[in-house]
Structure formats: C-alpha cells, structure tokens
Amino acid sequence: MIFPLFVAITLLEIYVLASVGDAIGGLSTVLLVVITAFFGSFLLKQQGWATMAKVQNAITNGQIPAVEMLEGVVILISGVLLLTPGFITDTVGLLGLLPFSRRYFINKILTKNAKKIFTQKKSVFIHTSSDESKKSNKNKNNTIEGEFWED
Questions:
Q1: If we measure between CA atoms, which residue out of 112, 147, 104, 144 comes closest to residue 128?
Q2: Are 81 and 105 in contact (CB under 8 A)?
Q3: Per-residue pLDDT tens over the stretch 129-146
Q4: 12, 88 in Cβ contact below 8 A?
Q5: Residues 6+ apart with CB under 8 A from 28
Q6: The pTM is what?
Q7: Helix, strand or coil for residue 60?
Q8: What string of DSSP letters covers 77-124?
C-alpha cells in the first residue's frame, strides 16, 4: 500500500514541479522550493519548541501529555515532508505545522483508530493514584500483582 502511494506522490510532484517550472521558469521554481524549505524549517523549530513546552507544562501539572506527544509525531512527519522537495509535500508539511490543522489531523487519526487501539486483547493498563505512588516511592521493593492470560 505504501509503495504505490510513494510512487504516485513522486510522479505527481515531478509533474507539478515541471508545470510550475514551465510557468515561472526553472530558477524561480528552485528558489521557491528553497524558500518554502527555509520557511518550513523556521516553523518546524518554533512549533517543536512550543510543543516541548506544552509537554513539560503537562508533566509539571501531573497530567499525561498524550495529545502533545501526538502533536510531536505530526510535527516530525511534517518536518520530513518539508525536507522532501516539491510543492505538494511542502503544502501538507506546512499544514501539519499549523496548530489548528494539526489538531484536525490528530482528531482524524484518533477517530479512525480509536476502536483498534482500545479493543486490543493483549493490552495492559496500570494505574496508580497519587497516594499509592507516594507510598511506592518510600518502598523501593515494589511488587506488582496482576493476571495474565492468552487466548
């Protein structure tokens, strides 16, 4: 599934680059691709540090930074798309760096895969309250009780 998609996107990128180069000239096209890469790298750095600050703030408040971590993944993928030369990948990469569209991508991914994620049979979830974690920090010999079964 990924290989045909990769080939199709590559051919589409070549077509768009050739069309734009035909319309505005080859040097202008190359300069435009370089400018979008610089602009994208600036946004990548800015949004990456902002997301890191959100993660640290959530951890400081005792929350799990799940959404912020997903934002980090989308930012990473956007950065890879921005490094790939071409206008289509640059457009999708820039959309991944904008906060409102990034949230849209994350919501789509979660709604599409929520059933798959939360209904796995071999998932293990461990939850401790803050009182239990304070007690467990005092005793270094922690024992976790649980059950395991295989279908």
A1: 144
A2: no
A3: 555 555 555 555 667 777
A4: yes
A5: 21
A6: 0.68
A7: helix
A8: HHHHHHHS-SHHHHHHHHHHHSHHHHHHHHHHHHHHHHHHHHT-TT--
What is the domain partition of the chain in residue ranges? Answer: 2-118
Residues 49-85 have pLDDT tens digits of 999 999 999 999 988 888 888 898 899 999 888 888 8
Helix (H, G, I), strand (E, B) or coil at 22: helix
Whole-angstrom CA distances from 122 to 55, 63, 77, 100, 112 are 28, 25, 28, 34, 20
**Close Cβ partners of 88 (under 8 Å, ≥ 6 residues apart):** 9, 12, 13, 16
DSSP 62: T
**Residue 9 neighbours by CB under 8 Å, 6+ apart:** 88, 89
Percentage helix, strand, coil for the chain under 3-state DSSP, each rounded to 5: 75, 0, 25
68 Cα distance to chain centroid: 9
